[in-house]
Specification:
The chain is mainly α. It has helices at 2-12, 21-40, 48-62, 66-82, 87-96, 99-114, 121-133, 138-156.
């Protein structure tokens, strides 16, 4: 079982020097989508508002059309279910994203977490854990949370 999971990640997620730029970008998209999907299921309730927010974030971030978006979400869900840790995903993010892009990923995680108007303690813990794994400063972690929360509260007013 462990060998099968390891092979899956090597085939679908691992970035190596022989990959084309397009292939590397796709693996990073999948890793990002998988992290977002992990957040959606963190509170043990998959809420449609969070799923919609996940799709909106992926569409906006990666400029995906409807078919590509559905495919990436399906793959992310599959990878999320087969994942044994966040490391497979966060290592790709660290290798492929600048610091600013990692902070943007945190903002997107917060967008998904706040989508159902309630951030569960498990969701907050997961975002904090991801922030640590992608080496984002605590001050930027807090700033990204407040930025998203404040933007959403002004929309609701």
């Amino acid at each position: 079982m462990i060998l099968a999971i390891k092979r899956f990640f090597e085939d679908n997620l691992q970035v190596n020097g022989n990959d084309s730029e397009q292939s590397t970008d796709h693996r990073i998209e999948l890793a990002t989508a998988a992290l977002l999907f992990e957040l959606v299921k963190a509170d043990l309730q998959i809420d449609q508002r969070e799923t919609d927010a996940l799709a909106a974030v992926l569409k906006q971030t990666f400029k995906l059309d409807g078919e590509e978006l559905a495919h990436v979400i399906a793959l992310a869900e599959e990878e999320s279910h087969q994942s044994t840790s966040l490391y497979e995903f966060t290592s790709l993010v660290n290798a492929g994203y600048s610091y600013e892009q990692r902070v943007k990923l945190l903002e997107n995680l917060w967008r998904v977490a706040f989508a159902d108007a309630s951030v569960d303690r498990y969701e907050e813990h997961l975002v904090r854990k991801i922030a640590d794994l992608i080496y984002v400063n605590h001050s930027d972690f807090i700033r990204s949370k407040l930025k998203v929360r404040d933007a959403l509260s002004t929309l609701l007013e």
